[in-house]
Fold these 3 entries.
Entry 1:
Amino acid sequence: MASGGGRRLQQLLAQNNIASKREAERYIREGWVQFSEYADLGPVGRKARDGSVVIAVNGGQIRVESPAVQDQVMRMRSTFVLNKPYSFLSHEAEKSRSRIAKTILTPCNRMGMMGKASTQRPATVRDLHVTGRLDSDSTGVLIFTRSGVLSTALLSNGEVTAPLQKEYLVRVSGAEDLSPRRLDTIVNRFRDGSLELDGSNLQPARVKWLHPGLLQFVLTEGKFRQIRRMCDLMNLTVVNLKRVRVAGLKLGRLPVGKWRPASIEELFPNEAERQALLPLATLAIRPREPHRKPQR
């Protein structure tokens, strides 16, 4: 393995979204990764017949062998979306472990085809990591995955790719007797980035009234209890908050307390974005070109 040092190779894999640092460490230990700044390791951006993939990185090449490619693809495919119920905590690190969202990922709570319950369960539920926080008093989209690189992409707040959108439906009190002009003023303050939390201005948000008492928020950042605190600043009280979309993945008709598998294509419908965000998995799952018989 021509790596220029294992630590350097591990960082290259992580920085270029090929694998998380922990995943990269394992691939390097197993001898599944090669790096060269000079030698040609193969055609860039194509899956070889042996299952390996070559990616151009920092003026050199990284070849990821078939076992690592398949491991990363399987990790990507072990991604699930839950419609988190009220009062469940999103992270095990919080004080109580009696109502953790991950405990809902049981066979009886899985939604199969046509909305029917299924007996299947994530085989690796203990290895699943929740990507992002959703307050215990909020409901909606909560994503679990085995893939460290996918988790990093979803938590990057635009550092890996374009800022990821998160959409919420927010029912509020305090707007019932406000004039149309005051209602417009409120959403304009949400939109223009003039509100301040934690000593800094918020990024502009896409916000509109769906009807008096119900707001639609689309955010590209995620400060602690951000929407509730934004509403507090405008003398509105959040009564109910539901996250209905993360990137391209929509909650749809998934009932509260139910979960289902989610795909990379749902999260990132644009192929160019998937290629930039998750290069190894995108290359690995591309269909092979049809074999053409040589002409005689």
Entry 2:
Amino acid sequence: MEQKAFPKIIMHMKQRFQRNENYPISLEEILDELQIIDLNTKSRFTLDTQMLCNNAKLETTTEDGVRKYTFKPKFSIRNRRDLINLIKEHQSKGLGGLLVDDVQESMTTEEFERVNKKLGENSDIVSMPGKGKKKVFFYNDTKSAENLQLDEEIVKYWRDVAVDGLDEKKIEEYLENKGITSMKDGLESKSQVPVGGKKKPSQRGRQSKKHNDHLGSLLTEYDPALKKASI
């Protein structure tokens, strides 16, 4: 009997959580809400002391000596911001995204519907199929370089113009005529870089090292030839 009632109880507790009614209730209160009246004392005892209190999806507390239960979601997600932070954390650790089923189970129905309404290409949360065709939420960094969008006018000019055989001067003139000065500036800065990307070291002011300059006058004074000539 308890085996039949157990999955109904877990589902009921999950639904209470998703309705934002996750306050603690006893087994007797659960059975009353489910209108289960045919469980004998032994089955109730087994549920209360073994099956429910040891289940990972339920949190157990005791009030006035009575064991009470609340649903325990896989993740702690109160709103969209919590979800984004959790997905980013998982992806940064190389754990991938989050199963949509796990997210839905961890949020109230109202909050989960808000997330779904904002899904799309330009959203910071995207849904993609994962293993076993289960949907997975991923974080989509809309400000990353991969998602930068070029101006359609620039793309059009780039596709239309033929640059084969044109030097930089001709390309600059074309871009300037089209009013695209920022790209022209990029070409100018590039043209100022010397070939090879390195400057030759300046030779200005370079001196070779001299040795024993201070001995010059002494050597002259004691030169035997000079001394002999002076006599």
Entry 3:
Amino acid sequence: NITMVGTRLQLVAFVILTVGRLAGSLRLGIDTAETYTLDDWQCVQRAGRSFGIVRAWHSYGAFDTNVMSTVANGWLAGMEHMDVYLFPCYALSPEQQVANMIANLTHHNVTYGQFWFDIELNPSPGCAWSADPSQNCDYMARLMAAAQKTGRAFGVYTSHYEWERTMALTCTAAASAPLWNAEWDGQPTDGFKAYGGWTKQAMKQYNGTGQLCGKEVDLDGYM
């Protein structure tokens, strides 16, 4: 029956088109504190990852010089987006850390989309968050103000658990910034519950113990 065959073909075409649109709307990437070569990023790209986020500021309060080659290699490999992140040390001035990172990135001609604040337990000696969440929330507000002065796009990486134990869930100091939410459930886009004034996530880290191209890596996704 030609009509039935035609209908089936239309249905198949519709399914393929729909799946293609859904697949096209999902972007997968990685974040890393390691040095990546051109070959590393080419492997990442072949694995279906289109963006990378690279550490630019150490948790002990210093510029990460590896960011220069790692970001450059990402662009050379054809990655669509390359961002950087800052892991703040509570013992140091938030304003100075933001300014120093931006100055170093500019001085070394690092091309990046935006930067992210990494808000979680800080393991570096002397850099741990205060035991008082209200003081941490005030510190976060200062980070936000310093970021706004740079004129660069920025956001915040954290999780419900990390925000609760560092800032308290009632702290909304960063709610105006996009949220890169960590929820290691293996699902690239789902699983968000509101906290800290955020009602949605801009991006999700869905695996913090992944393996890709021979390296341990964090896996991320956004729609």
